[in-house]
Amino acid sequence: MSDTITKGAEAPSGDNTPKTSPEKKPERVASLWSDAIRDLRRNPVFIIGAVLVFCLLVISAVPGLFTDGSPTDGNACDLANSLQRPSAEHWFGFDVQGCDIYTRTVWGARNSIIVGVLTTALVTVVGGLLGLWAGWKGGAIDSVLSRFTEIFFSIPLLLGGMLIMSMLPWAGNALSVSLVMAVLGWPQIFRIMRASVLANKNNDYVMAARALGAGSGRITFRHIVPNAVAPVIVVSAISLGVYIGAEAALSYLGIGVQPPQISWGLMISDAQARFLDAPHVLLFPAAVLSVTVLAFIMLGDAVRDALDPKLR
Questions:
Q1: Could you give the percent of the chain with pLDDT greater than 90?
Q2: Cβ contacts of residue 150 below 8 Å, gap of 6+?
Q3: Is the dihedral of CA 304, 307, 311, 312 positive or negative?
Q4: Helices 157-167 & 230-252, crossing angle to 10 degrees?
Q5: Longest dimension (CA), the chain
Q6: DSSP 8-state class, residue 79
Q7: By C-alpha distance, which of 300, 250, 267 is closest to 94?
Q8: Of 203, 260, 255, nearest in space to 228 by CA
Q9: For residue 294, what are the contacts with CB-CB under 8 A and spacing of at least 6?
Q10: Which of 11, 127, 241, 311 has its CA 20 to 30 A from that of 250?
């Protein structure tokens, strides 16, 4: 009996295995960039703008995927088709020279996008580096560079572009237009980067890094640049669309990209004389240009909203 009782007492009454507490999920490290990426993924304006920009970049890079024709082909234009209306076979119709407007619009995206992207890249690199240098060094360097930029701020972009392009012997292509607009556009990025560096270089984390013995280069590129570059990215994204519109304006005035090259500005310039009797010649390149500028501005506005904590 005692053995039975003892065995019964020793028998486990339940599951006595040690229970482990559920593992805690690692806390998400909050930062400006991680929060911005999360906000952009949920922003329909950014998604629409990004899809449009991606499509435009693919069209400009590989136009042959979207049209079988080529404007450089000797048989691309036929005067017998002059000013024919849009149809099922030719969606955008024909221009005055009998060229297919859809084909020319697709191939014209290349020069327009190249000008916008190349100008934005040059402006961001030159203006950003000079602004970083002026804001970090201060003193005489900051004063000289700041006074130098004021000279360029007094020159309007289109007026200055017209003046410089008319004097260049090698003008008339996308590269020359990009260089001219970059020369006139970098002071805006310079001022933004300089102001952002001045606002960040005296923060506590910079002082702590300096007290721990970090050099100027490490402090600049590990602490200053990541925290100062956000407004530069925002302005650059918005300005890209502005530069595409400026290239179209210069080409429309006969100073930008020149034939036999193609751009939307050239197409609009050629179509203005026949707008009343053939509005489709002007409508389609102007609509594509407007959508392109709008797409980049939408992208820039979404990035601005995501990177500005005051708008949250």
A1: 11
A2: 187
A3: positive
A4: 60
A5: 116
A6: G
A7: 267
A8: 203
A9: 241
A10: 127
- Return the structure tokens found at 56: 């435009």
With CA atoms as reference, report the closest residue to 260 among 125, 90, 107, 123.
Answer: 107
Whether residue 182 contacts residue 126, with contact meaning beta carbons closer than 8 Å, is answered with yes
Q: How far is the C-alpha of 312 from the C-alpha of 308, rounded, in Å? A: 7
- Cα torsion 301, 302, 308, 312: sign: positive
Amino acid sitting at position 91: W
Written as six digits, the tokens of 13 are: 């009454």
For 104, phi then psi, to 5°, come to -70, -35
Q: Are 256 and 277 in contact (CB under 8 A)?
A: no
Stretch 204-214: mean pLDDT: 77
Question: What pLDDT score does 99 carry?
Answer: 85
Residue 40 is encoded by which pair of tokens? 């952009």
Tokens standing for 210? 């300096």
DSSP state string for 107-139: HHHHHHHHHHHHHHHHHHHHHHHHHHHHHHH-H
Tokens of 212: 């721990």
